[in-house]
Amino acid sequence: MALGKPLLQLEKVTKIYPPSIRALENISFEVRRGELLFVTGPSGAGKSTLLNLIFGLERPSSGRILYGDLDYAHLRRRDLIALRRRMGFIFQDFRLLPEKTVFENVYLGLEVLGIGGAVARERVERILRRLDLAARRDQRVETLSGGEKQRVAIARAVVKEPELVLADEPTGNLDPERSREILRILEELNAEGITVILATHDENLLRGHHRRILVLPEGRIVNA
Ligand SMILES: Nc1ncnc2c1ncn2[C@@H]1O[C@H](COP(=O)(O)OP(=O)(O)OP(=O)(O)O)[C@@H](O)[C@H]1O
Fold first, then answer.
1. ipTM rounded to 2 decimals
2. For tag attachment on the chain, is the N or C end more exposed, with fewer CB atoms within 10 Å?
3. Which residues pair with 212 in a beta bridge?
4. Are 191 and 1 in contact (CB under 8 A)?
């Protein structure tokens, strides 16, 4: 699909954790609306830090992050929360509620946004069907396989109908077949217009894709 104007811009972003851990150094790139950008690099290269900065969970030590015309540095807490509603985050360790059902986990993702009732239920049912989780609807998450948990995590992120999905090692705990399935789902969502930033150290996932890849820690962009 045609790629639009930049959705996200990072300019010379550096993140130093106390006392002096340089997690990211002088990283600049932009992501266009509708793009799927891979972020790769070895363990400790700063992939999670980068996604956390974009989601506003951390602040850069220096440099600038822009979402459309919004400069993160000028956002009040309330504005940052509003911005975060436009994004879905898929965490490496799922961060689901293990004792709650699949339905409840995904529904809660909407409830925290103030969307409830029949509208929310219908949206949840639709996304569960879409991710082949309808049969697991009332099962507690702790009883699911790793691939199923990952699909629930994706469902919870995309039920918000976000503009941007941030996926942190979404295939980290999965076998190659399940990993390809997760990648296929993210590619489908991207083909429908959702911008996706996918952090992975799995070279198999990167192979055969005509995408831009941000390579950390250097921050260079490779057109694969
Ligand atoms: N909250 C934190 N406080 C202090 N140091 C941190 C914190 N988060 C990350 N780091 C450090 O920053 C560096 C980058 O970590 P980060 O988790 O971003 O890398 P990563 O590429 O995602 O690694 P992995 O692939 O192993 O998840 C590491 O040296 C890490 O120890």
1. 0.96
2. N
3. 37, 223
4. yes
